[in-house]
Design brief:
With about 50 residues, the chain is mainly β. Helices cover about 0% and strands about 45% of the residues. The protein has a domain of about 25 residues.
Length: about 50
């Protein structure tokens, strides 16, 4: 997770990896004032997130 330095935003990554070629995950932007999450990856299985 990482907080925006000036805005009330938090970025979080989620997911799983099977050790081979299959991984699924999501990168979420959370508005801390409204509590509304926004997915930053538009793919049905998500993508690998290595760091934020």
């Amino acid at each position: 997770m990482a907080f925006h330095p000036a805005l009330p935003l938090l970025v979080a990554d989620t997911g799983s990896y099977d050790g081979g070629y299959f991984f699924e995950g999501e990168l979420l932007l959370l508005d801390l004032e409204t509590g509304m999450p926004t997915s930053l990856i538009e793919h049905e299985l998500g993508r690998q997130v290595l760091g934020i």
